[in-house]
Amino acid sequence: MLVDLRILRFDPERDEKPHWDTYSVESGPMDRVLDLLHQVKWEEDGTLTFRRSCAHGVCGSDAMLINGRNRLACKVRVDQLGRRVSVAPLPGMRVIKDLVVDMEPFFDQYKSVKPFLVNEEPEPERERLQSPKERARYDDTTKCILCAACTTACPSFWAQPSFVGPAAIVNAHRFIFDSRDHASEERLEILADEDGVWRCRTIFNCTDACPRGIHITQAILEVSNAVVERRG
Ligand code: SF4
Ligand code: FES
Questions:
Q1: How far is the CA of 95 from the centre of ligand 2 (A)?
Q2: Per-10-residue mean pLDDT for the chain, 232 residues long?
Q3: Which CATH architecture has domain 104-231?
Q4: How, if at all, do strands 84-88 and 2-9 pair?
Q5: Ligand 2 touching residue 222 (CB < 6 A)
Q6: Using a 6 Å cutoff on CB, does residue 220 contact ligand 1?
Q7: DSSP letters along 13-67, please?
Q8: Which pTM does this prediction carry?
Q9: Were 138 and a residue from 18, 116, 164, 177 both cysteine, which residue would form a disulfide, CB within 3.0 to 4.6 Å?
Q10: CATH fold of the domain at 2-101
């Protein structure tokens, strides 16, 4: 199938503003958008710049706006999009070049919620035990690959980039409800801030965008409830 692939290009050393370039590319039956980007880069224009690593939906590095939705280029099959495909960088982020955006603010927000296990008790001889039920409590939010598709699909984030964003709340949830962790109070305090959970308007864009199928809005509601209970 011959596909019109439109890519929003921007080279800060040459361009004053972004512009669309269109490439006519041949797509095989199982090709994904990432295959088409590779085709352009390797056969037509080596200056095309984008991130990718695993090519199998695991590393989270190739999230971009594809036909108007945030998705992983390595997971979207071209035959499911049709003959016209448009690709642009994640919305609401500073573009460094072409499809590469500055992820530093995203990772700063992620780090702000202490996304690691905190437990000052002496280490047991073997692992810290947890029942299957306790593990299941936060299973969904362990699946995050930090692709930023959710946060950059969120109108509250676009309006207020200081909003900590869905991805950071998902990763806070992963530890807040971990029975072995002792820093839930601190995380809830951080997320009770004006840039915390209250900026969520339950629009569900984040849940729709997540390539891992995480129930993000549900996780945000659970964290919001925990913030309220803590205050009560
Ligand atoms: Fe990506 Fe989903 Fe994690 Fe958001 S919650 S960063 S969409 S994997
Ligand atoms: Fe790793 Fe797409 S390249 S998730």
A1: 19
A2: 98 96 97 98 98 98 98 98 97 98 98 97 93 98 98 97 97 98 97 95 95 98 95 70
A3: Orthogonal Bundle (1.10)
A4: parallel
A5: no
A6: no
A7: TT-SS-EEEEEEEE--TT-BHHHHHHHIIIII-TT-----SSSSSSS-TTEEEET
A8: 0.95
A9: 177
A10: Ubiquitin-like (UB roll) (3.10.20)
